[in-house]
Amino acid sequence: MKVLRTDDAHFANLKEYPFNPNYADVTTIDGTNLRIHYLDEGPADGPLILCLHGQPSWSYLYRKMVPFLTAAGFRVIAPDLVGFGRSDKPAAVEDYTYSAHVDWMSQWLTNLDLQDITLVCQDWGGLIGLRLAAAFPDRFARLVIANTALPDSKAVAPEMSAMLGQVYPTIPVPNAEEVVKQFGSGAPGAFLYWVKYAAEAPDFSIRDVFGLLSNIDDDAVLNGYTAPFPDDTYIAGARAFPSLVPLLPHHQSVREDNDAAWKTLEAFDKPVLTAFSDGDPVSRGGEVPFQKRIPGAAGVNHTMIKDAGHFLQEDQPESLSNAIIEFVNNTR
């Protein structure tokens, strides 16, 4: 496996990101070592909050939340998924699979022997993080689920998957503006435009994704999000992730893996908070299955983060941080 590593110089003097790097190694199925970067901030003996990002972000997404959480006495650990941030980046799209990411982050979690975890997960941070919670439920004390999903055979029935599989080849390769337009329309197949854009568009741009989905107009912030990707040879993971969401017929075995994870989550009676945002066209309504299917979500005062889009950590970091702090303090 060919692996790329972004030079440290690209992370110098990033806006609002003064954190020291930490690293741990994991091993791929072919024996390749991968280095995973993570932040570890706040008191070492403080209650642990594990923050998992999605695609195409990295731990930079949590930079404005870390000061709120550490000031409240929490220890915050925020890793960069393989392919993102300061973590190593396999160079081929084919190197990235859902099961591989779960394996890599499982190794990382157990190597660090993290315990009594409050998981905060968004986007792919949920697709991976909730699999970790299902695989190691004794390590997790509570869950905070934001703007994400865990697609299984109940959410994506074979008939729906077959229909999506028929639709996907008919979709023209879109640009970023067309993807946003489709999400805004609320069309059932809108996500497939995102899949095709990331996988096939010659002008796929991480900068455009953040500019359009979060309306960021600060070049210094956009530079922070794009810092891990000096050129297009580094973006295989960002291109691969949307295609790994288990929607299409060839994802059946992955949905079955998620079925097994849901069986554990449907017995998870430790506290669960949903904190979705009111302006995310990608995950609209996605909080409902978690509230209905996970016992620990019953009786919890779930929150809706106001005036925030898909990247709610960027748009409303204080509101989300305060919701997490209140939730943890009320359930300790």
Summarize the model shown.
With 332 residues, the chain is of the alpha/beta class.
Mind explaining what this structure looks like?
The chain is 39% helix and 15% strand. The chain has 332 residues and is α/β, with parallel strands linked by helices. The chain has a single domain, classed as Alpha/Beta hydrolase fold, catalytic domain (Rossmann fold, 3-Layer(aba) Sandwich). The longest helix has 15 residues. The termini are far apart.
Q: Can you tag this structure with a few keywords?
A:
single chain; 332 residues; alpha/beta; Rossmann fold; 8-stranded mixed sheet; two-stranded antiparallel sheet; 13 helices; 10 strands; 39% helix
Describe the main β-sheet briefly: 8 strands, mixed
Characterize the overall form: globular
- Series of H and E elements: EEEEHEEHEHEHHHHHHHEHEHH
Q: If strands are numbered along the chain, what order do they take across the biggest sheet?
A: 2-3-5-4-7-8-9-10
Gap from first CA to last CA: 44 Å
User: Helix/strand-derived class?
Assistant: alpha/beta
Strand content: 15-25%
Mind sketching the topology for me?
Layout: E1 3-4, E2 22-27, E3 33-41, E4 48-52, H1 66-71, E5 75-79, E6 89-90, H2 98-111, E7 117-122, H3 124-135, E8 140-146, H4 158-167, H5 176-185, H6 190-200, H7 206-213, H8 219-226, H9 236-244, H10 252-265, E9 272-277, H11 287-293, E10 303-305, H12 312-315, H13 317-331
Parallel strand pairs: 4-5, 4-7, 7-8, 8-9, 9-10
Antiparallel strand pairs: 1-6, 2-3, 3-5
